[in-house]
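Technical note accompanying the year-one report. For the benefit of new consortium partners, we illustrate the data format agreed upon in the data management plan: each record pairs a sequence with a structure-token string. No post-processing was applied to the example shown here.
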Amino acid sequence: MQEVKTLKDVQRVAGSLYTRILEKSEHIMKHIQIGISIPILPDFWKYMYSDFEEYNAKSIILEEDINTETFGKMTDKVVGHTLIYDDGGDVLFFGFFRVIDHDPQKIEILIDSVINYARQNNFTSIRGPINVPTVIFGWGFMVEGSRKDLFIGSPVNPPIYQQVIMQKGFYAKFQEDRYWMPAMKMDPHRNPALIKKGVNFAEYEFSNPGLEGMMQMKEEYIGIHADYMPPSAKITPKASKNFDNIVDFVHTYGTEWMMWIVRHKATGQLAACGYVIPDVFHKDRKGELDSISFHDWVVHPNHRRKYLSMLMYGETSLRGKDRKTPHYIKRGSWPVGADNIANANAAKKMGGKKDRSHVILQMEL
């Protein structure tokens, strides 16, 4: 079977270096690990194949001629990789962008190939890196000085990538900071500070619907995100299957208490919702998860300033810090938009310390 199906097949770009475009998912999977520091476990493939199909994804690979007599005919010639895809709009997204030796020339060649593809196919802008599915592989180039240990959704790279790519006309579209913090137990119904403020959650019902329950309320859940998430949270590509993958991932690798909703009892309106992402790479001696990413919190405008964020955190902490429930959580990572001062201050008040940042780049064509 022929592996390459491209617009112009092989394009030689510099001396011994040349690029190719791969379109079949099974061919993309052969080389995509080059593009990410996070391990691609076989169990993750179903989520990746789903997104490849959803976004009509392709891989641009950078290859280098080698002396097969010296290194052998089986030596892999691929020295760089990036995924390119779109959601039917005018933005070309890229992700899984990396070269094996972090060589500036190879980085420049690879990003040039992305720019050329975007121009040839009439995209108006380019954005990335966004590594789908983001629930596992995250987004952005890591900012210098960030913590480099393995954590779900936190790719690692040296700063040479953003330095080279920004010289091509890209700018920082969005920066996300992460706060490493202890998982603290807090009962929102008995918290002295909330009681002093006269906060009463009697008009709301907090629940963990489980996998089937979440799937039954898919449209409602997607709707509150589409309508009320801030613009900075809408930088990732649109997709109907994102919800399915997130719900399945959280319930497969985590447990029911990691995804929740809050309803207003009198009206039945979905007042708030959210989820945490289980960090599958960190487990305790019993083989259970001990860390999570505090990932998603949305509150309907009609119910803001009612301390529902505290209700969601508190109820979730009661379950995550209960040794009778699956997975006893000791620590977590709280992602916050760099311009979201309120959430950053909240993370700091809860003992969080900023330990890593990632930046998404964009270029207008």
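Partners are asked to follow this layout when depositing records. Confidence is low (pLDDT under 50) at residues 1-10.
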